[in-house]
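Example (one chain per record):
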Amino acid sequence: MSTWTVDRAATTLLACEDERTDREPITDQWPDLDLRTAYEIQDETLRRRLARGEHLVGVKLGLTSRAKQERMNISSPLVAWLTDAMVLPAGAPVPGARLIHPRVEPEIVFLMRERLAGPGVTAAQALAAVDRVYAGAEVIDSRYRDFRFTLPDVVADNASSGAFLVGAVGLRPEQLDLTLEAVLVEVDGRVVDSATGAAVQGNPAEALALAANDLARRGLAIEPGQLVLTGGMTDAVPAPAGARIAFHFSSLGSIHLSGGA
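Predicted structure:
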């Protein structure tokens, strides 16, 4: 077995994504993998995505809710990248044919009006830089078997990125209470979960500030026009072929998805 490096890890994870194959966590073979190096792997995979023609459209947060942290046995949120290749058009099914084991979760999404750069960004400052707030759905798809990973593993894997879509209703931040914005998760006509925006770091604006401050440690910022997915409000639900999934938000409308082949 050759030595693990940033280059090798990036090559391995992108190959798993392209070939729809999962694997054991990298830390099983690279136990000394730390967060700094994991973000270097994440940035290298982004560099390769851009080199093959994808375009950066925003950032996403992972593991911002207690439900997701408990499910994954990880206690710290993380930041990752969104590209246009991950956009799921409205009405399109979950792209099961190109994913390994997709799961879907509801999110609150920010469209940025102004550049947001840390360090020291507060939730109030973060929200002042937002243009519109939308409902969102993220399709997560870990490259690790059975979604088993440590924090460095999932950071390197771009926070289990798969696909995402944004709802049609966009409100100004002052038009809704982010902490009380509620969502019902419906699967095949049955409500299986619910949450409010308070599940996301107490307030999704706190997650936005966290993202800006985290990126600042890497010399980066959230740019105007970018989208920010603030993290799953509830645990993710599987999206097998034929499943009917809906996220009903109290102010931001509903998002309907179907499981693809």
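Caption: Helices lie at 6-19, 35-51, 66-72, 123-128, 151-156, 204-216.
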